[in-house]
Amino acid sequence: MKKKEKLHLSSKKHVGAFNQPLIFFLFICLIFLVSGARLFWIQIINGSYYKRLSEENRIKLIANPPIRGRLLDRNGVVLADNKLFYSLSVQPRLLSNSQWIDLRKSLSDLLNVSNDQLEIAFNRNHAESPFKKLLLTDLSVEQVIRFKEQEKNLYGAQIDIGLVRNYPYKSLAAHALGYTQLITQNEFSKLSERGYKLSDRIGRKGIEAAFESELRGKWGGEMLEIDSIGTVQRSLGLKLPEAGKDIQLTLDLDLQLTAEKVLSDKIAGAIVAIDPRTGAIRAIASQPTFDLNFFSKSFTNKQYDNLFLSSNLPLLSRAFNAYDPGSTWKPVTAIAGMESGKFPASQKLNTVSCITYGSHCFPEYNKRGFGWIGYEDAFRVSSNTFFYQVGVGSGSKALYDAAIKLGFDNYTGIETFLDENKGLVGNKKWADEGRGWGKSGETPWIVEDMASASIGQSVVLVTPLQLARAYAVFANGGYLITPHLVDGNINWRSKKYFQKVDIKDTTLDTIRRGLRKVVTSGTGMGLNLDTSIFPPVAGKTGTAEDSSGGADHAWFVGFAPYDSGEIVIVAFAQNTPGGGSVHALPMAKKMLQTWYKINSHEQLTGGKDGP
Predict the structure, then answer these.
(1) Considering only Cβ atoms within 10 Å of each terminal Cβ, which end of the chain, N or C, has fewer?
(2) Is residue 595 classed as helix, strand or coil in its secondary structure?
(3) pLDDT tens by residue, 189-244
(4) DSSP string of 102-162, one letter each residue
(5) Does the domain formed by 253-289+317-605 have CATH 3.40.710.10?
(6) Which CATH class is domain 60-248?
(7) Is-above-0.70 flag for pTM?
(8) What is the pLDDT of residues 55-94, one digit of tens each?
């Protein structure tokens, strides 16, 4: 029994001795397998990432932003340029957690900024460069000086110098110029392929957005060799940034300043001044407005909400938004009547206190009527019952066709079309299809609609810019222009941009004479007071009920000189009851005074003038 036990123990020892090398071998294999897998993961799967980390440790790329192109008025006056700004950033790779906490406290005390604000900025995801964290922008001069005084004690932090958009005239032409903002994370993922960086600003609205590709320029940069602690050893190469292109606008600063001034005491409104010979916009303003420099500074969420969520809608361009045009629409009805052949140029109609259509008696504004009158006197006194008869008698199609000829119910072609409202010209087809809110077949076109449409009410909405474009047809002898803010190298009088309107000469001449009578002896006579130096002016007043339920709108549209048509002015006072001749006409009068002064000076000095 003892002999067997000895044999059994000897066998165990032999097996154990045999298994030890195998176990050791398997252990070594496991180590090599794990190491190989790790190396494969590092070098093959994440090779590019770690290569970039390695390169970043010895080569640093310093990006140099381009200078954004300036915006200039037609005479070269700067309306938008750039100014230096200072920002604070840190390099997290140079800091441990405890070092960052100490640095954060030092920066907070030194710059009078909360710890929380610095921490939030530090933890924000910066996809463009994980080696640099932007903490603060738009530092004051005092903050920069404080930092520089203590810089040696603020290891890992640095002050960067950049450029930010600057608007010397603040709110001037704000809606036309537009503004820039930092690109978002989503935008960066799409725009990075086009050379954009996360710190880039992009044109958000107006000309800044429409001409973004020309204004922005191209980034440059310098490649630096640095050591392990971040000290620069030498420059390995430099590529200078390419500045963006300056954009010269058609705006005239003096005329634009007048437009802003005449609107300043209005609740809301717009001014448009346009050259009917080319479509060049000389002034375009909207009230209320905002300071464009707001977007170039740091702002709180409350300040942001006060601007974007304001009930006054300061970011909305009234020049591009659509409203009831009232009596300024009557030339469209006149075209429908004459071009349809149902109410020729010589037609006279009896105007009365009111005319019943359907279930409603549509009144004459003076409650009496003006007796038997023709088109010219109907414009002069702005008779409603005359144009009710013409519009209803001509029909929905004739009125819509006339509106289309003058460019309504369509975009004007201006470069900033993304900000533009198309407007509305109600018609039978539109009503039968549901009017944009109902079901097809349940909202038919009725005679009351036709009567309202005849005088620019209820089912007609137009923008001040559309109205300026339409009246340019009467000013320039029958051509539909393309409004624009930049002349560029385009021939704006070519057939593509300057199109002959298909209306008879007798129609055009009749409307022109009527618009002239408005100013000489009609509702626009106020324009003649103290304006003996003015050239002959033609135009139309308008008082429109606000179909959205607000107070009446006031309008005046005019052009001068009557014979040659060099300027069209649209003055619009939103929800300002009292009539176009009371509120809008005085605004247009001041615009004409400034224009005439500019025009006279240019003719004397040989300055810019003409097509």
Answers:
(1) N
(2) helix
(3) 888 888 888 778 899 999 999 999 999 998 887 777 776 555 666 777 777 888 89
(4) HHHHHHHHHHT--HHHHHHHHHS--SS-TT-EEEE-S--HHHHHHHHHTGGG-TTEEEEEE
(5) yes
(6) alpha beta
(7) yes
(8) 555 666 667 778 899 999 999 999 999 988 888 888 887 8
